[in-house]
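hey can u check if this looks right to u? its 522 residues, i copy pasted from the old doc so theres a chance i mangled smth
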Amino acid sequence: MKKNGFVIVTVLLLLVNALVVYLTLPTVSIHNVGLWFIILMDIIVLTSRYHVFAVKGLKGIKTTAWLNIGLALAIVIGSLVSSQIFNASAYSNLLDISISDKAELPGTDKLNKIPLMDTESSKVLGNRKIGALNEIVSQFEVSDDYMTIAYRNEPVKVSALRYAGLWKWNANRKNGIPGYVMVKPNDLTAEYIELKEGMKYVPSAFFGQDLNRHIYFSYPTVFFDNVHFEITEDGKPVYVASTYDYTIGLFGGKKITGCIVIDPVSGEMNRYDLNNIPQWVDIVYNGNYIARYFDIYGKLINGFWNSWFGQKGLIESTTTTIYNSEGEAVRENDFGYIVDSNDVIVYTGVTAVTNDESNIGYLMANERTGEVRVSYFESTDEDSVMRAAEGEVQEKGYRASFPSLIDVNGKPAYVMVLKDKLGLVKMYAIVDAAQYSHMIVADSLDKALSQFTNGNITGADLQEKVIVIKKVAIIGSGEPVVYVVDTDNNIYTSSFQPEHLLLEEGQEITILTDGSVFKLKD
């Protein structure tokens, strides 16, 4: 009877373990502290039940008690030897960081590579687009996880549809998710892309079609996270999961090792190490990972004890107050983006831990390769700049998006959008990074840039160009803006200068331009 009882307990424990594995997906690795706890709990249950049924006496109980204590101590000691207190140098080298004292910022000619619209505004456009499709909106929702990617060397934000709950999944699981939304931030447009075959292996699916579960049962010994949606250069949908391992001690030093690319239609997967990641994959090191481990680097840069006592030279990435879709103020990391050579570069400010009222520099990181470049120069912090821009139009109640840094005539400046309570982009702001009292807020980016520079744009990025005027207009009073359209339908703007009165339709002129703003060549 006692033997049967022990067998029953063992079988039940195996069933419970199978359920725990199916639901929590614990990576089968010595570096997974969660797996150690599962094993510890199993041993405690088995040994305690064994003594209840087998009645082995006090000596046997002591033996198994020491076994349990030993395993618990192994977890505690493993965590301790993996901690920052013993491995400050190793933790501070988890990122590939290069340092520069020069501000290496994109010029005004790169403005079309910067997606100024933030995720909240993208959600508004995406939901409006799907809301007009009756058959789609009744069964699916647009995921909130809009990813900024490089698509044919242009910045776009993409988000897959998702099932609106268990019952909607059950009704549509044979056909799968029918499409995704693409938002073009600089055009302020959204497009629904319908697929020939639906995506079956997605995060919003259930049971065997749940994407995380699908990955896990193919790679049970591999750590992965950051599962997100992207598209290839021909518009094919894929999901990408970053793979990582713990490289310091037993449980410390999370480090990216590569990625897994999943075809959500067929479920096929390919795993890549860091040296073989396809060029079209954009996000392996996401901004939050970069910020977290940069902050560890900044805290331990002069050793562990300095981070607690002397605190000399401590730095960290900046945080800002942002507003979610419910209008609630949340303070967290936020990022600007730029597309460079079909890679997505994420960047944010760097500030001193002991004085976070201004920035001492900024960091830029390639989200595919993980390369981080830090440049040091003093500037106003992003939060102050955002609040200043909002103050310029406080009667309208607009909120600023997180700004991006650009080079305007050799000086750093912030550029951002201002949006209404619905999340729609209404205005653009350009703010001097050193003196945020110098700012321009206008209803178009070209107009803001032209007024900010007073039409005086200079720099190596300017190109000499001969154009034929198709149309010319001088608009506004006080500080009017000149608009010139050439015969190729390119539009150029400039702050008004007296010589602009001599411009006529059909006239051939030579200009210096960055692609949007122009000045007449002397």
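The chain has twelve helices and 27 strands.
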